[in-house]
């Protein structure tokens, strides 16, 4: 769109370098949008010398003929009066990169020139890279890495709008089909919960759901195992939506066995799995038969920053399409114990678990075990997805 474009990250580093050489005259770039256009002019004068420090091809960046200002546009006239338009284009783009998607949408309707800036590919690329690590959920249809890795013909703006939870959850995107699903009665799906998180610092999630008298959940009964005693569990009702589920919990071993074999690879001591002889694993026969009868899976991991998310052997053995229909959904609960704990972003959990390889519906959702924040919307998604299969 612009000749000799500069990457937004490069621009940031150049301006930061300029700040470090400014003899104490520090400029708060994050405050640009809380101040007047005069502040933007101050920013311009502080960085204009960058034009002399960089290659002349980058220094003389100007809009092409497609980005001419609209002569009759009052918004453009006001911009010209403040001097914003005299800033180099790459500085204008850098400033726009601090805005939110909602702000860019509003600015794009002010005038033709700002519409061009607000829809620039570099701005939306920077926005996507900045925000996707903050998203509290990522799913099989909202994973930006999938579009990027396959070099999709979608623009970064398209990818952002398709994947951002904030955009997808906006009331304007509510669909009538969501209401119809609530009105049509459906049977409670059988869900299997498993994973390394059940044997870590966040193992209290099962107790919090089923045994701590949490008002968000109501235990309505128990049911026995049907396959060699495997598959017993609890019938649970979600109080916010009156949705019901039958929850089965599977552990790799008893608590005593786990404590006695802490130094052994979890996959090797996992009673749910058997080795295949080629350093691979598959599920035990009884577990395979159970998988054929369930409607959804819940995989629990501890995502406290710095902790190991665990291996993927158990996950991919359970998700083998020979064990269960590929339409059966998977929910990954990315758990920390308390809200104050620093956590690995959902997008990093997706990468670590290689979820892009799964040919089934899946969702990774942030959860806090202490107050069960995030559990209800995650389970609502799983139950709805399971009832559609």
What can you tell me about this protein's structure?
With 389 residues, the protein is α/β, with parallel strands linked by helices. The chain is built from 19 helices and 10 strands. It has helices at residues 8-20, 37-47, 50-53, 56-59, 74-82, 89-96, 101-107, 112-118, 121-131, 144-149, 156-163, 165-168, 176-183, 204-210, 255-260, 285-291, 313-318, 346-353, 375-388, and strands spanning 137-139, 190-194, 217-223, 233-238, 244-249, 273-275, 281-283, 296-302, 330-336, 362-368. The strands form 2 sheets. An 8-stranded mixed beta sheet has the order 1-10-9-8-2-5-4-3, sandwiched between helices. Strands 6-7 form a two-stranded antiparallel sheet. α9 (121-131) packs parallel to α11 (156-163). Residues 1-6 and 22-68 have low confidence and may be disordered.
How do you describe this structure in short?
The protein has helices at residues 8-20, 37-47, 50-53, 56-59, 74-82, 89-96, 101-107, 112-118, 121-131, 144-149, 156-163, 165-168, 176-183, 204-210, 255-260, 285-291, 313-318, 346-353, 375-388, and strands at 137-139, 190-194, 217-223, 233-238, 244-249, 273-275, 281-283, 296-302, 330-336, 362-368. It has 389 residues and is α/β, with parallel strands linked by helices.
């Amino acid at each position: 769109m612009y000749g000799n474009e500069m990457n937004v990250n490069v621009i940031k580093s150049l301006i930061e370098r300029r700040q470090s050489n400014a003899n104490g005259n520090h400029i708060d770039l994050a405050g640009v949008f809380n101040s007047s256009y005069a502040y933007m002019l101050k920013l311009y004068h502080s960085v204009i010398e960058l034009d002399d420090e960089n290659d002349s091809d980058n220094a003389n960046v100007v809009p092409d003929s497609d980005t001419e200002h609209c002569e009759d546009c009052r918004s453009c006239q006001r911009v010209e009066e403040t001097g914003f338009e005299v800033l180099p284009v790459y500085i204008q783009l850098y400033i726009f990169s601090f805005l939110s998607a909602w702000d860019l949408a509003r600015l794009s309707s002010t005038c033709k020139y700002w519409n061009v800036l607000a829809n620039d590919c570099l701005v939306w690329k920077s926005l996507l890279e900045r925000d996707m690590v903050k998203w509290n959920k990522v799913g099989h249809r909202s994973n930006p890495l999938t579009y990027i890795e396959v070099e999709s013909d979608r623009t970064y703006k398209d990818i952002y709008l398709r994947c951002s939870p904030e955009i997808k959850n906006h009331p304007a995107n509510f669909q009538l089909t969501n209401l119809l699903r609530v009105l049509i009665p459906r049977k409670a799906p059988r869900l299997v919960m498993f994973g390394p998180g059940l044997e870590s610092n966040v193992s209290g999630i099962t107790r919090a759901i089923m045994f701590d008298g949490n008002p968000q959940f109501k235990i309505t009964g128990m049911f026995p195992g049907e396959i060699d005693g495997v598959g017993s569990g609890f019938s649970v009702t979600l109080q916010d939506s009156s949705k019901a589920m039958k929850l089965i919990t599977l552990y790799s071993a008893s608590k005593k066995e786990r404590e006695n074999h802490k130094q052994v690879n979890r996959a090797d001591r996992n009673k749910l799995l058997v080795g295949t002889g080629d350093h691979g694993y598959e599920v035990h026969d009884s577990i395979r038969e159970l998988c054929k009868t369930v409607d959804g899976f819940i995989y629990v991991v501890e995502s406290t920053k710095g902790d190991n998310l665990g291996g993927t052997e158990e996950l991919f053995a359970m998700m083998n399409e020979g064990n269960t229909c590929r339409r059966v959904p998977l929910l990954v609960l990315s758990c920390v114990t308390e809200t104050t704990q620093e956590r690995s972003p959902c997008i990093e959990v997706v990468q670590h678990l290689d979820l892009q390889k799964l040919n089934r519906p899946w969702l990774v959702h942030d959860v806090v075990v202490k107050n069960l924040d995030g559990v209800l919307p995650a389970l609502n998604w799983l139950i709805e997805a399971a009832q559609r299969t």
